[in-house]
Amino acid sequence: MSEWLVRNAGSIVIWAGAISTFAIYSILYRENKFYRLFEHILIGLGTGWGVYVTWSEWLGPKWWTPMVKEGRWCWAACSISSTAASMYGLAE
Fold it and tell me: Residue 2 in contact with residue 17, Cβ under 8 Å?
């Protein structure tokens, strides 16, 4: 199974892109379940990609690594206090 996936990865990606494109453009005909499914998939993929990039480019190296590996625990207090302030409307 894995050999087949490796050999046919290019054509699988092309077919997935073609089906996704037709699904998104099907809204031009009328709103349908096919469009709704791919709309949710697209939103989920975009959100997942955004979370991954945010963690790998910003939060991981600039916040988590200094806090955990270098012992800068005061950043945790700042994070908790700013989150609490924004949740309760104190940061206005």
Answer: no
Amino acid at residue number 36: R
- Residue range 40-64, pLDDT digits in tens: 988 998 899 999 999 999 888 888 8
Model confidence, pTM? 0.59
Q: Contact, 52 vs 58, CB < 8 A? A: no
CA distance 38 to 22: 10
Rg of the chain (C-alpha set): 21
- Residue 6 has which token pair? 């490796």
Q: How far apart are CA 78 and CA 80, in angstroms?
A: 6
